[in-house]
Specification:
The protein is an alpha+beta fold. The protein has one domain: Peptide deformylase (Peptide Deformylase, Alpha-Beta Complex). It is built from 3 helices and 8 strands, in the order αβββββββαβα. The strands form 2 sheets. Strands 1-2-3-6-7 form a 5-stranded antiparallel β-sheet, with helices on both faces. A hairpin with a 2-residue loop joins strand 4 and strand 5. Bound molecules: nickel (II) ion.
Length: 177
């Protein structure tokens, strides 16, 4: 297990499409997932995608813990999602603030589908199939965007709503994706 360096916006590897995982039994995949988990936890992230640590495979992890400061915020169980496919459940979009471990210290207002179904596989190759909404749906869309070489600033509609976290939200501790 190891905490890996997270690539920052500007690194061309963050712009490349990731390849699907073909071999679920490989020790390299198991090691990658452990490293992603450890890196996300160490940096207090809500999610991480493999390209963020320089691995061009379709693997994301995410997890949102209960935060006593935001008792209404939805929690999301630790999830490993390999070769994900997203299907929006309606055309409804919602805007909310996002951050990213690859864009440290920044926040932007990003439109996302309000509800979607996500399908893929867990670390052992077992199918995952969930229909979710709200923040859970947002985190999944953010992470899966990384697999297509898309960083959240590319999705901001009005760049007036993009800025430094400590200026936008003084005194708050916020998670990054
Ligand atoms: Ni991110």
């Amino acid at each position: 297990m190891a905490v890996r360096e997270v690539l920052k916006m500007g690194d061309p590897r963050l712009l490349e499409p990731a390849r699907p995982v073909g071999d679920f039994a490989s020790p390299e995949l198991a090691r990658l997932i452990v490293d992603m988990h450890d890196t996300m936890r160490a940096l207090n992230g809500a999610g991480l995608a493999a390209p963020q640590i320089g691995v061009g495979l379709q693997v994301v992890v995410f997890e949102v813990d209960a935060n006593p400061r935001y008792p209404d915020a939805e929690t999301v169980p630790y999830t490993v999602l390999v070769n994900p496919v997203l299907t929006p459940l309606s055309e409804t979009m919602e805007e909310a603030w996002e951050g990213c471990l690859s864009v440290p210290g920044m926040r932007g207002l990003v439109p996302r589908y309000a509800a979607l179904r996500y399908q893929g596989f867990d670390a052992g190759g077992q199918p995952v199939d969930r229909s979710v909404s709200g923040f859970h749906a947002r985190v999944v869309q953010h992470e899966v965007d990384h697999l297509h070489g898309i960083l959240y600033p590319m999705r901001i509609r009005d760049l007036r709503w993009f800025g430094f976290t400590d200026t936008l939200f003084p005194g708050q501790t916020l998670q990054d994706d």
